[in-house]
Amino acid sequence: MKLICGKRIKYIDFDVTVARIVVTKGGVKIYTTGHLERLTGITERTISYYHSLGLLSLKKSKGKKMVTDEDLVSILKIFIMKITHKRLKDIQHMKLESLSLPELMKDLEHMNDSILSLLQGLERYSTEKDQHICFSLLQESDNFLQKYSR
Q1: What span, in angstroms and rounded, lies between the C-alpha atoms of 120 and 122?
Q2: Which of 65, 57, 61 is nearest to 97 (CA)?
Q3: Domain layout of the chain by residue ranges
Q4: What are the distances in angstroms from CA 121 to CA 79, 107, 126, 141?
Q5: Could you tell me which residues are beta bridge partners of residue 111?
Q6: Over the stretch 10-44, which tens digit does the pLDDT of each residue have?
Q7: Is 77 exposed, middle or buried (CB count within 10 Å of its CB: 0-12, 13-18, 19+)?
Q8: Is the distance from CB of 47 to CB of 36 less than 8 angstroms?
Q9: Which of 112, 45, 100, 102 is nearest to 74 (CA)?
Q10: What is the CATH number of domain 2-97?
Q11: Of 8, 50, 63, 148, whose Cβ has the fewest other Cβ atoms within 10 Å?
């Protein structure tokens, strides 16, 4: 057991292949924002911005922002909500910890269903060239845009 930033840490795992340090505290892995960027492509700037909006509660260790497994789930939730075109302003007023992933998956499934319906309609229209199908597609497209556009 080592003492890091006033907290007891079970062990430090050093992985030479990606030159990173992952600190494990009570079974929870903690990453630096730089390490997270190398693993996922999510920039440190994005993580810092979410933190400044109050969406993440990052801790600092030796001047580096640290991301926990809990933060990773919060980031995933934010991304899912952004995919379904929720604005960060709106996300700020939600309690991320109270939102379940299955609940957010339903939003993605609804979006997916709408897209599949549009694709099927386009396929029908491309073979039949029926004006009524075109009107229906326009209506579906408008509904989709109203629901999912910013």
Answers
A1: 5
A2: 57
A3: 2-97, 101-148
A4: 28, 21, 9, 10
A5: none
A6: 444 433 333 344 556 666 678 888 888 888 899 99
A7: buried
A8: yes
A9: 100
A10: 1.10.1660
A11: 63
**pLDDT at position 27:** 65
Residue 72 tokens, joined: 């990773």
The residue whose two tokens read 């991320």 is 96
CA angle 41, 43, 47 (to 5 degrees): 125
Which of helix, strand or coil describes residue 1?
Answer: coil
Cα 28 to chain center, whole Å? 19
Question: Which three-class secondary structure state does DSSP give residue 14?
Answer: strand
Q: Which helix (H) or strand (E) holds 66?
A: strand 64-68
The yes-or-no verdict on residue 56 having pLDDT over 70 is: yes
SS3 64: strand
With helix as H, strand as E and coil as C, how does 99-112 read?
CCHHHHHHHHHHHH
